[in-house]
Amino acid sequence: MVDDPTPGTAKRPPSALAAAGRAPRWLRYALLAVGLAVAFWLPNGLYPAVAVDILCWALFAVSVDLLLGYTGLMSFGHAAFWGTSAYVTGLVAIHLGLPFPAAVLLGALAAAALAVPIGYLAVSRTGIYFAMVTLAFAQMVYYIANEWRSVTRGENGLQGVPRDLFGLDLTDDYWFYYAALPIVLLGLAAAWRIVHSPFGRVLVGIRDNPARARALGYPVRRYKLTAFVLSGFLAGLGGGLFAVGHRFVSLDTLHWTTSGKAVIVVVLGGIGTLWGGVLGAAVLVRLEDWLSFSGFEAIGLVTGGIFVVVVLVFRRGIWGSVAALAVRWRTRRRE
Amino acid sequence: MTGFLQNTFNGLVSGAFYALLALGLAVIFGMLRVVNFAHGAFYMLGAFGAYVLLAEAGVPFWAALVIMPVGLGLLGMALERAFIHRLTRLDPLYNFLLTFGLTLILQDLVKLRYGVQSSPYATPAELSGSVDLGLFDFPTYRVFILVFAVAVCVAAWWLLGHTRVGMVVRAATERPELTRAFGIDVGRWITPVFGFGIALAALAGVLAAPMRAVNPLMGADLIIVVFAVVVIGGLGSIFGSVAAGFGIGLIQAWGEAYLSDWPILSQTIVFIVMAVVLLWRPAGLFGREEAPA
């Protein structure tokens, strides 16, 4: 046991999952309704371009949390899937002229295909090794994109990614937001289904006690690999939309800081709470936009600072903290 | 033949950097169970500190070679006490995330003050020129790095093997549970060992200053390669980290020389090696096999 040297002492914050599950049915539906209302209203209250970024990052965060929160695997290389899909989506849209949902779907499939070999190798390690292995493979993808200039245009990036949807005029970000929203909602619904399916239960079982899961006869590696590929697909959906949303794909989409930012978003929102990832994405994207708009150049100083503070004193994240507070309030009222 | 030897020497020189960084990572991991993401940032701070000392205070290379490791080692100890210490009982992932956050902060602080341009650092006069190695001339400075880094690794090896602290570190790195079971007080050595690991990273940074472009991002991509190095060597093994460091330096240099027609291959060869090693020995070449996951 090299990976977990101190069994029993390594602790994660109490899962907010249990707390959320105890919420009454009407409250869950009410929250869902509020969430959907906010999602439909968003581009009216924010710059539509920022709203589109929030959508994409919400999917990215949920894909990372599917592994981190529900399978206990911290991928620090998810930019590989986000960026690969961005490039494939961009190339398909430019060269084949497909409508953008088809291009995004192909991009996400390419990301899932890439997740198969990377996941196959990575799931042989757990914990911190898993993070390092995914990080290293993501960097490999970054180098490939950087060197394969005839296809990726190297540092110039892919320019002029079209936003075609059967001739609809989507040049305005406001309308593009509403075209992208159904895809994102489908992705989020898929993540919700995965987590709440028997398959998702097995993943949580593996996270909590891999030895027990194996003893019960579950092929642990195959479950982890499947989760990894599904997660790569969801990250790819987000990355493809991001490419179409910006009409531009840069090497940044593959850089390790992008992987790190995705993990920040999850931790900020709350590990193991799908909606927390959405919330974290909204907060961080909005904050970054505000910072760059106000001419502040050292964004890493702020995101890094948030990271340090969250990890030190706010490990449950936004959603996890709210859920914990709600549970405490409810139990106190009952007594 | 001459070309081959020259490439081999160059590979050993870059391997020396990997070895110094991987060695620091390994001892820190041994004592704290922390994979220090900020290691690359401290390497950068070492190089940048040497540049600032020379440019703004006229402090020469040799003094920087002492000042930066000591200063940054102390800073590392302060950070360990202030932040990392608070997370010791939690999942190691939190410390990885914490040091990632610190990396972003340290990089941006330097970027804010000095911009992202590379800064030149002159090779010290005593080490400029080249040495005749029989078949070919090799830059004196690179010979110096190689000798120096090997000396540091040997000294670290001796410290780890022949002093009480070293034995504790080695035991804690390679058999953590057994060490605790023997009732050895590992806790009091945590902070100094963290400082020592950081000092090694800073030392590598100062050594890199005259040879590589000094800029705020110089540690960022290097650290990922070093992670690949420790995965290959086996993070639970100090010897493995150093050996894999030199080995990867060699493979990379040969790749760049002989695979230059396939730049994609020569750039990613480290990660290809990592993939092969993971298939063959998931715990790394010198790591111990864990319980199947």
TrEMBL record, chain B:
The chain crosses the membrane at residues 12-30, 61-80, 92-110, 141-160, 189-210, 222-250, 262-280. It is found in: Cell membrane. Its main location: membrane. It is a multi-pass membrane protein. InterPro entries: ABC_transp_permease, BCAA_transport_permease. Pfam families: BPD_transp_2. Keywords: Amino-acid transport, Cell membrane, Membrane, Transmembrane, Transmembrane helix, Transport. Belongs to the binding-protein-dependent transport system permease family. LivHM subfamily. PANTHER family: ABC TRANSPORTER ATP-BINDING PROTEIN, BRANCHED-CHAIN AMINO ACID TRANSPORT SYSTEM PERMEASE PROTEIN LIVH. This is Branched-chain amino acid ABC transporter permease. It comes from Micromonospora cathayae. The lineage of its organism: Bacteria, Bacillati, Actinomycetota, Actinomycetes, Micromonosporales.
